[in-house]
């Protein structure tokens, strides 16, 4: 037994040693894992420190950017996100506060801010500051989630004196503001009822005790509150209102009254009417403007002001940067509701969201005046409008006019002098300085070429102040600004003198008009003669006749010289064209003489077929392309081998599948040609092999094809264009959709097949030469930029109709693009936000599309010369200001320096009609010409 016990003891010692060894091994492994863990922690700390440094550098950069341009909306948003990541709550509060002073904040930004402030207030309770913050939040947009957060936060203070009444007040305001919200209003009503149910539970006496009379009255009163909330909610059309009705049936011990049932059914019917609009909003993609507009039109027909207001608010909560929608909303409030606080606050929100829209500022000023705002408030709003950054120079003219109109209405002109009158005159003078110094420097034009502001000032001085001396001084200034050559300007001045001046100044004005007017001198001559017939003496009449005859004779001479010059230029152009035609025909004749008789006969047979097919359609190759500013002007030839039948040895003729070219007998059937069923393909590569087979593969999905005819030169080489005739005219429209599809990395041009002899004015593409406010022009794009990539960049600013990348004929990109939006406002937003941004390392320039005038009005082109220079809307690439990069000297007409008479350029009159006859016309003839215009 002793041996056995010793053996057991030895075995136990061995087991202990084994366990000890295992523990030591585990300890060593744990130590190794701890060392590795410490190394990983160090690596993570290094990475986090690097990220922190990068974030700090980015925060500093954003701060510097905002110090330069405080109105950079995206910069504010990025800074808030970074500060949120870093956990810098106090810096974050400051950044949010700064952004809130300039812009209305979105629902997401407000909710984040409010939740952070609630978290901070747990350490430093200050409910009043949070209440103030909530009040600011609910004024920016009408959002159910913000109102619900506001009400729930107020419940936390119900234990304070007056706390329950404050909670009820906030809930009442919430259901008034968003209780009609079809999809989210229900949650506010339910939260309100839960709050009242919670109070009812606290009023219940302990189980087993009968409530006293006073307690029972409180309970009954509370039950009545809950009952009233159910009744009010069931009378409003809301989604899932049947669940609320079922809950009310279960809650009410007395059942549902007939009155409540009646209101519930009526609301249910209204909800069914609105349900399709709500479903379309749920299915639509942002910005849902079309769906919201349909909903607004429906509510306007229904005519419930509260419901109209809530649908406008819902629309603007998702489309706050759409000026047209703000304009419709404020117009409705101005004309229908006319509630001061609501109208003024909505106008204020409109200009804070879309400060670049002059019309909103103008409406705001009128609304303030309409509702009796004090003078200082209106003046402050006007000053903010001047610093808003309008897109066009004319916007500044209009906002100044609106403000000057307001100042004029304040003046009591029965008094000879007053503070208001002096302020009006000072404002007129300041407006002129502002146009000259600020607007002209920014846009390269004053925006007021006709001096409308000065004209209004002159009329006020003449009519109200009886100060014709000041009015005449103003008109002298107007005429010195390049308006003396226009007859209508002189007539304005003349009418002012007729109304408030005297005959002497009227006569003087008309004499000056006869001498200076270059556009319609006949008209001012007739007015002068009529004036002298009525009021003048014989000497006055003789002088007027002499001046008018001299002036009109000089004008006719100038017009005759211009007409002769243009006729000579047209004749020279025709001579040059004739020389080119002769040279080409001689060249063709020389080629034909070098061929043998057999080849000549074969060419003639081929030519007959080609002429029947190509009669006039060859001119379709001149296809105008606006984006490349180029045209394909390849003159179709009809030499030997047009179909490639006489190709040189070794040249591989194009095949159609496994079959050869069309049999020769088809050449004898010109009646097979049908332009209505055909399309013309151009811009194909000259090196394209087997073009017929490849084109058939591409165009067969459009419909059954009768024949495909590629065009070849005399040497048998492919000329880069062909004709495709379908069996049905329906296939043509499908084929035209393939325009600009690439074939072997080169865009092909697909156009209708039109006989130019029968339709000489046919144009496949008409180049737009006017401003396109819904389209933006982008330059400086990287060549690697794709259409899809550009569409993704621009889609955040509105609905896109088309994206067009500009390429060379070879298909290589030019770094230019046009993006067309559904609304003008979307394009304006894209200009403001995208101009100067960076795409793949390239800084792009963005502007409203304003194509230059085409160089088509050359002498001999058969088009009349247009003497009026193209209106300058601003050069591309300057965002809001649209600064013109064209020298100002190029904006003026280039007039000869000599031939100046009495201080007025006689050459100015050369801009009148180029078709004037050389013989002299009578005054009555000129008058009839003017009236016929």
TrEMBL record:
Keyword tags? Coiled coil, Cytoplasm, mRNA processing, mRNA splicing, Nucleus, Repeat, RNA-binding
All copies of domain RRM, residue ranges = 677-755, 774-851
Spans annotated as Disordered? 1-58, 563-676, 850-872, 893-933
Bias (Basic residues): 581-592
| This protein's GO CC annotations | Cajal body; cytoplasm; nuclear speck
What GO terms in the biological process aspect are recorded for it? mRNA processing; RNA splicing
Q: Per the record, where are the segments of Acidic residues compositional bias? A: 14-55
One Pfam family linked to the record: LSM_int_assoc
Q: Where do Low complexity bias regions lie?
A: 904-922
Provide a Gene Ontology MF annotation, just one: RNA binding
Coiled coil found in the keyword field: yes
* Chief place where the protein resides: cytoplasm
Protein's recorded name:
Spliceosome associated factor 3, U4/U6 recycling protein
Q: What is the lineage of its organism?
A: Eukaryota, Metazoa, Chordata, Craniata, Vertebrata
């Amino acid at each position: 037994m002793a041996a056995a016990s010793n053996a057991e003891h030895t075995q136990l010692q061995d087991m202990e040693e084994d366990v000890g060894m295992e523990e030591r091994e585990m300890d060593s492994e744990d130590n190794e894992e701890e060392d590795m863990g410490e190394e990983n922690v160090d690596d993570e700390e290094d990475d986090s420190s690097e990220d922190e440094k990068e974030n700090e550098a980015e925060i500093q950069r954003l701060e510097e950017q905002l110090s330069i341009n405080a109105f950079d909306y995206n910069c504010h948003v990025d800074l808030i996100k970074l500060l949120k990541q870093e956990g810098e709550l106090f810096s974050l509060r400051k950044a949010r506060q700064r952004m809130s002073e300039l812009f209305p904040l979105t629902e997401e930004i407000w909710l984040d801010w409010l939740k952070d402030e609630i978290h901070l207030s747990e350490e430093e309770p200050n409910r009043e500051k949070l209440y103030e913050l909530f009040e600011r939040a609910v004024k920016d947009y009408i959002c159910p989630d913000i109102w619900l957060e506001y009400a729930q936060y107020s419940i936390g203070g119900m234990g304070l004196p007056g706390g329950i009444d404050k909670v009820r007040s906030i809930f009442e305001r919430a259901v008034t503001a968003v209780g009609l919200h079809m999809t989210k209003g229900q949650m506010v009503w339910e939260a309100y009822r839960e709050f009242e149910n919670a109070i009812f539970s606290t009023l219940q006496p302990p189980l087993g005790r009968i409530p006293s009379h006073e307690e029972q009255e409180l309970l009954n009163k509370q039950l009545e509150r809950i009952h009233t909330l159910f009744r009010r909610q069931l009378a409003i059309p809301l989604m899932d209102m049947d669940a609320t009705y079922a809950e009310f049936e279960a809650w009410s011990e007395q059942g549902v009254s007939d009155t409540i049932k009646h209101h519930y059914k009526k609301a249910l019917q209204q909800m069914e009417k609105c349900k399709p609009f709500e479903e379309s909003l749920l299915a639509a993609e942002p910005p849902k403007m079309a769906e919201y507009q349909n909903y607004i039109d429906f509510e306007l027909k229904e005519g419930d002001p509260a419901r109209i207001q809530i649908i406008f608010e819902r629309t603007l909560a998702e489309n706050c940067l759409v000026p047209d929608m703000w304009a419709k909303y404020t117009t409705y409030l101005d004309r229908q509701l006319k509630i001061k606080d609501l109208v003024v606050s909505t106008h204020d929100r409109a200009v804070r969201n879309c400060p670049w829209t002059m019309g909103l500022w103008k409406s705001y000023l009128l609304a303030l005046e309409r509702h009796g705002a004090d003078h200082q408030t209106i003046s402050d709003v006007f000053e903010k409008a001047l610093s808003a950054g309008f897109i066009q120079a004319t916007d500044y003219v209009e906002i100044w006019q609106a403000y000057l109109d307001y100042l004029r209405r304040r003046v009591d002109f029965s008094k000879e002098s007053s503070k208001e009158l002096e302020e009006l005159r000072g404002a007129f003078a300041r407006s002129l300085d502002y146009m000259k110094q600020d607007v002209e420097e920014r846009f390269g034009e004053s925006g007021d070429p006709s001096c409308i502001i000065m004209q209004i000032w002159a009329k006020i001085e003449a009519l109200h102040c009886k100060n014709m001396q000041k009015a005449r001084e103003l008109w002298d200034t107007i005429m010195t600004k390049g308006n003396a050559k226009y007859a209508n300007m002189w007539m304005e001045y003349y009418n002012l003198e007729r109304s408030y001046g005297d005959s002497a100044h009227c006569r003087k004005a008309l004499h000056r008009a006869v001498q200076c007017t270059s556009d319609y001198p006949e008209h001012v001559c007739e007015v002068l003669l009529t004036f002298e017939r009525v009021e003048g003496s014989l000497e006055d009449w003789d002088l007027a006749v002499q001046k008018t005859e001299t002036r009109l004779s000089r004008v006719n001479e100038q017009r005759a010289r211009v007409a002769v010059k243009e006729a000579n230029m047209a004749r020279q152009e025709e001579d040059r064209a004739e020389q080119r035609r002769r040279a080409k025909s001689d060249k063709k004749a020389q080629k034909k003489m070098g061929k043998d008789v057999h080849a000549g006969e074969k060419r003639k047979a081929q030519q007959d077929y080609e002429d029947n097919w190509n009669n006039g359609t060859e001119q379709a190759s001149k296809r105008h392309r606006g984006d490349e500013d180029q045209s394909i002007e390849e003159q179709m030839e009809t030499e030997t081998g047009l179909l490639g039948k006489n190709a040189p040895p070794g040249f591989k003729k194009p095949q159609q599948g496994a079959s050869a070219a069309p049999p020769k007998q088809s050449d004898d059937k010109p009646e097979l040609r049908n332009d209505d069923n055909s399309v013309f393909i151009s811009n194909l590569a000259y090196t394209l092999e087997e073009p017929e087979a490849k084109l058939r593969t591409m165009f067969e999905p459009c419909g059954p094809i009768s024949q495909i005819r590629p065009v070849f030169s005399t040497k048998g080489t492919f000329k880069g264009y062909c004709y495709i005739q379908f069996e049905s005219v329906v296939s043509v429209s499908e084929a035209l959709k393939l325009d600009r599809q690439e074939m072997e990395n080169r865009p092909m041009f697909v156009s209708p097949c039109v006989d130019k002899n029968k339709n000489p004015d046919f144009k496949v593409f008409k180049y737009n030469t006017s401003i396109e406010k819904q389209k933006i022009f982008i330059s400086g794009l990287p060549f690697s930029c794709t259409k899809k990539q550009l569409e993704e960049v621009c889609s955040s600013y509105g609905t896109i109709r088309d994206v067009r990348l500009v390429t060379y004929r070879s298909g290589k990109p030019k770094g230019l693009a046009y993006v067309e939006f559904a609304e003008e406002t979307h394009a304006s937003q894209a200009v403001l936000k995208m101009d100067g941004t960076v795409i793949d390392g390239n800084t792009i320039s963005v502007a409203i599309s304003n194509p230059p005038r085409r160089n088509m009005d050359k002498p001999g082109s058969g088009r009349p010369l247009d003497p009026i220079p193209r209106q300058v809307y601003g050069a591309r690439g300057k965002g809001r200001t649209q600064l013109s990069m064209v020298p100002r000297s190029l904006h003026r007409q280039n007039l000869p320096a000599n031939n100046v008479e009495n201080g007025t350029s006689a050459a100015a009159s050369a801009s009148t009609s180029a078709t004037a006859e050389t013989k002299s016309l009578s005054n009555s003839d000129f008058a009839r010409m003017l009236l016929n215009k």
